[in-house]
Amino acid sequence: MIVGITGGMGCGKSTVARLVEARGFRRLDSDELVRERVLTTVPVQAALRAHFGGAVFRPDGEVDRSKLAERVFAIDDERLWLEGLTHPVLFGLWREEFAAHPNERWAVETPLLFEKQLENWFDFTVCVACAPEQQLARLEQRGIPRVLAGQRISQQLPLARKIELSDFVLLNEGSPAFLETEVDRLIIALNGWS
């Protein structure tokens, strides 16, 4: 079983994915894979350097993700170019992980699940949602300026549409204990289908 976990930025996808992992699923964090295994590859870095020059690299030669984000979230064509570069590498990593552990149950954090029509990768989709004010406040707590947070959110499918498209919805507006109860209910439902 492969479960795709999506939702808006700052809604709690990672928290839910970790809770699902603690209940026996193997977790893949797509953002982490991009950060640690896609943006660090020689071909991807070479393409970034050819496209942006040194403007998105730190002095140590590694990708400066905040400078890259400023570029790609301000201009749609740049974001689409970056997705075209990184997504095929990411999907290759997914395939490797699934093939290496074919009998595992998977929870995959996938921010752009519906935006990129990735539903066919998953047996079930889960949307983690919260109120827009909470979403922005959480992103600001992470150090993302409100303007940049707004730009990033605007690039995603509206949360209401993600909720409509998902098989399951978890509201992350209460206490941590409430969210754990929601995840326990989700696991019971998923176990009923496996």
Describe the structure.
The protein has 194 residues and is an alpha/beta fold. The protein folds into 2 domains: 115 residues, 3-Layer(aba) Sandwich (Rossmann fold); 74 residues. The chain has a 5-stranded parallel β-sheet, with helices on both faces. Helices cover 56% and strands 12% of the residues.
Nearest-integer average pLDDT: 92
User: Percentage of helical residues?
Assistant: 55-70%
The CATH first-level class of the largest domain comes to Alpha Beta
Terminal CA distance reads 7 Å
Q: Structural class of the helices, strands and pairings? A: alpha/beta
Largest sheet: 5 strands, parallel
- Describe the strand arrangement of the main beta sheet, using strand numbers: 2-3-1-4-5
Q: How many beta strands in the DSSP annotation?
A: 5
Overall form: globular
Low-confidence stretches: none
What is the count of DSSP helices, taking H or I runs of 4+ residues? 9
CATH superfamily of the largest domain: P-loop containing nucleotide triphosphate hydrolases
> What letter string, H or E per element, gives the SSE order?
EHEHHHHEEHHHEH
User: Any idea what the radius of gyration is?
Assistant: 17 Å
What features would you highlight for this structure?
single chain, 194 residues, alpha/beta, Rossmann fold, 2 domains, five-stranded parallel β-sheet, 56% helix, 12% strand
Strand-helix topology:
Layout: E1 2-7, H1 13-22, E2 26-29, H2 30-38, H3 42-52, H4 65-74, H5 76-100, E3 106-109, E4 124-129, H6 132-141, H7 146-154, H8 159-165, E5 168-171, H9 176-193
Parallel strand pairs: 1-3, 1-4, 2-3, 4-5
